[in-house]
Design brief:
With about 250 residues, the protein is an alpha+beta fold. It contains 7 helices and 11 strands. A 7-stranded mixed β-sheet has the order 3-4-2-1-7-10-9. It has a 4-stranded antiparallel β-sheet with strand order 5-6-11-8.
Length: about 250
């Protein structure tokens, strides 16, 4: 009887704490590649202890803000109660193509200053691939929650209840291909909403591809090249099909 009672007492806190995990991130990218990002996470205090001291994270963010010239942290704070910690951060950036390098450098600072494990930081940030150096920019992100969840939760995902993580990306152009759960704003906004209990073992995958509009002068140049090509082909054709003159057969 005692072992069963002890097990119940151990499970009850997880039932309360784990069911209250909520996270939301939103990213805005402008036409000039600048933009801003906003993140909000509300998690149990017990879980935050496993990730590190909140004050250490704040200090790490201050260091990142000082060192990264292309990134400006406008807001970062923790709201702490007896049972949970709410983390919020808002930042602006100058060039979206530099975000991957900034994330890589920031990850190293978080590991050093907040004494977080690389596995946990990678689990939070995920594996991100952003390619905007072509006419078809693509974005992909894969997040594994396994490193963040207690083994008991991994074995019994239902403990997470209706907890969700939501990710939103706003672009200046329409999205052509995506696995987003919802597209809005004339297909310029993609939203993914993941129920955490469905992703304790499988990753949360995000993907989108868009197409940059060509400047008017490029379209004009392409038209001129096409007309010149057609004219050149026509001249060559006429030259070789024209009947030869002043040529007499040899008898």
């Amino acid at each position: 009887m005692l072992p069963k009672l002890t097990s119940c007492l151990l499970i009850l806190p997880l039932l309360y704490l784990s069911s209250c995990v909520e996270g939301e991130e939103e990213l805005w990218i402008n036409a000039d590649a600048s933009g801003r990002i906003k993140a909000h996470y509300s998690i149990p205090s017990v879980a935050m202890k496993d990730l590190g001291n909140p004050e250490d994270y704040l200090r790490s963010i201050e260091i990142i803000d000082e060192q990264e010239k292309g990134l400006t942290v406008e807001r970062a704070h923790f709201t702490k109660t007896k049972s949970r910690i709410t983390f919020q951060i808002e930042a602006t950036f100058q060039n979206a193509s530099e975000l991957l390098e900034i994330a890589d450098r920031s990850q190293k600072i978080l590991i050093q200053e907040a004494r977080s494990s690389p596995e946990q930081i990678e689990a939070l940030l995920g594996q991100i691939d952003l390619r905007i150096a072509s006419l078809n920019p693509t974005f992909s992100r894969e997040i594994h929650l396994k490193e963040l969840l207690p083994k008991m939760v991994q074995k019994n995902p239902k403990i997470l209840g209706k907890s969700t993580f939501r990710y939103t990306i706003n672009l200046p152009v329409a999205i052509h291909h995506s696995n987003a759960h919802a597209l809005s704003n004339e297909s310029r906004t993609a939203t993914w909403t993941f129920v955490l209990k469905d992703h304790t073992q499988t990753p949360m995958d995000m993907f989108l591809q868009t197409q940059l509009p060509l400047p008017w002068w490029i379209l004009t140049l392409l038209l001129i090249v096409a007309l010149l090509t057609i004219w050149l082909i026509w001249k060559i054709y006429k030259r070789f099909t024209k009947a030869p003159e002043n040529i007499h057969p040899i008898v």
